[in-house]
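Why do we bother with a discrete structure alphabet at all? Because it lets us treat a fold like text: something you can write down, compare, and reason about line by line. To make this less abstract, here is a complete entry for Homoserine O-acetyltransferase. Read it the way you would read a sentence in a foreign language you are learning: slowly, and without expecting to understand everything at once.
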Amino acid sequence: MDERFGLARHVRLPGPLRLDGGGVLAPVEIAYETYGTLDSDGGNAVLICHALTGDQHVASAHPVTGKAGWWTRMVGEGRPIDPARHFVVCANVLGGCMGSSGPASVDPATGRPYAMHFPVLTVRDMVRAQAMLLDHLGIGVLRAVVGGSMGGMQALSWAATFPDRLRACVVIASAARHSAQNIAFHEVGRQAVMADPKWQAGDYYDTEPPAAGLAVARMAAHITYLSEAGLTEKFGRRLQAREAKSFGFDADFQVESYLRHQGISFVDRFDANSYLYITRAMDYFDLAEEHGGRLANAFRPSRARFCLVSFDTDWLYPTAESRAIVHALNAAGAPVSFVELSSPFGHDAFLLESPELNRVVDGFLRAGE
């Protein structure tokens, strides 16, 4: 594979990585991809942080599904994050299921998968693991950290945890903490997984995974990624095309069929225990609480420039969440730009074709180059 356009990598770092919950990981496995060439001074590195159901395959074909990378609209030749200008790094988060240490990894103490014995994680733990990877790659200071949704949480945590290691921070469709509603939706998904008889308290790696429970969890979560207007425009109350109408519990409505497809396709590439761990880490995330209860305190040591983007139909992380972060950055004296973009696609807008988003990110990154 041409290293300029994507190289899949895996590293086993000795650790130890001490976690917020008191656990320790050693060794630490990290699967990641790089695109482009690192400058001699290491000054062109851009770290991309993925969302809950994403992975390191940001701009290359997924090895399980064969689909294009999840952010090819943002990363690639002629795109805002361009391997011709940037050395791009994207790592599967700690707790993930695409090669980084997680519940499916082998516990060196037992020789079996950790399952639910894997230590509890936080977003800050994920960021510390990424910092270990950058140390391994010889990257001291990042030109930028960029992320949407949970990736935005990681970007914020980078600015707070390693204020001297990044020059710019791009946070898209994210929040500094989860609302009660966010936590409630995640709990529904977790309960769906754990109610599946095949879950077996997480010890299913030698048998069949809890596919039905994980599919329902994905269906419930996917609703939060969309908007009512978008669903209505795309599906309305249209029925599936059938020769003879029948009533019952088949997927009569097109929106039902769509959600079922989302659930079924998700279980082919994701681990149920990882879903439990990562959603819990997102729910624990509260950047203000980590810094004495004041969000501005999280940003006072940082010298980075910040760019915040929200979408007007995103009800998972509404614009008010981004504004709260902007106010905290203003209070901390940090340079910040903010824009709310219009889109009918809800939270998922940051993953879809958006010329306006590309212009914002491209302009912000070029301003610091």
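What the structure line is telling us, in plain words: The radius of gyration is 20 Å. The chain has a mean pLDDT of 94.
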